[in-house]
Write a structure and sequence with these properties.
Distance between the termini: 50 Å
Strand content: under 5%
CATH class: Mainly Alpha
Helix content: over 70%
Number of domains: 1
Strand order of the largest sheet: 1-2
CATH architecture: Up-down Bundle
Order of helices and strands: HHHEE
Number of helices: 3
Radius of gyration: 15 Å
Number of strands: 2
Largest sheet: 2 strands, antiparallel
CATH topology: Methane Monooxygenase Hydroxylase, Chain G, domain 1
Structural class: mainly alpha
Length: 97
């Protein structure tokens, strides 16, 4: 059984990852390709958070699973936005260079 503290810590880690990713997303839309390492790191943190949520949900009660599910949806929505931003420096105007 997941403890309340473990769920709260996971949610906090996810919220931190979301904040960092939102900063990098905003920076990516404004500055294009100047912060590729940070952008990639933010996406990795989101993926790790999604995995942590999925793992913790396996031992959570129904209320905790619902809370973790909502968090997973937020993480995945932001992941999708970041992927669709077309932040790859090798891609210009939708064409690989």
């Amino acid at each position: 059984m997941a403890t309340r503290q473990s769920v709260e810590e996971c949610i906090q880690k996810c919220e931190d990852a979301i904040r960092y990713a939102q900063e990098q997303f905003k920076s990516g839309t404004q500055q294009e390709h100047y912060h590729d390492n940070e952008y990639t790191q933010a996406m990795q943190q989101l993926e790790e958070s999604v995995n942590d949520v999925a793992h913790l949900a396996n031992s959570a009660n129904s209320q905790q699973r619902e809370q973790l599910h909502r968090m997973r949806l937020q993480l995945q929505a932001l992941q999708n936005e970041m992927i669709l931003l077309d932040h790859d420096p090798n891609v210009v105007g939708g064409k690989l260079h």
